[in-house]
Amino acid sequence: MPTVTAIRCNPVIHAFAERLKAAGKPAKVVIVACMRKLLSIMNAMLKSNVPWNPNIA
């Protein structure tokens, strides 16, 4: 469920989700794509030991 919240509240993830929806992707595909994007961002944050920065996403 964090992905659904990120789609609603994070402007970068929201724009990404809207772009996928405009391309005609089903809702579950959009959620999974956003989930993967968040996971890759969090993985990079853990590797480089930096705090969350919404401008990077």
If you had to describe this structure to a student in words, what would you say it looks like?
The chain has 57 residues and is mainly α. It has one domain. 74% of the residues lie in helices and 0% in strands. The chain has three helices and no strands. It has helices at residues 2-9, 11-22, 27-48. Helix 1 (2-9) packs across helix 2 (11-22) and helix 2 (11-22) packs antiparallel against helix 3 (27-48). It is elongated and about 35 Å long. The two termini are 19 Å apart. The mean pLDDT is 92.
For the record, the count of structural domains works out to 1
Which ranges are low-confidence, i.e. pLDDT below 50, for 5 or more consecutive residues?
none
The description of the largest β-sheet is: none
Encode the helix/strand succession as letters.
HHH
Number of helices: 3
Estimated radius of gyration: 12 Å
**SS-based class:** mainly alpha
Please give a quick description of this structure:
With 57 residues, this protein is mainly alpha-helical. Helices cover 74% and strands 0% of the residues. It has one domain.
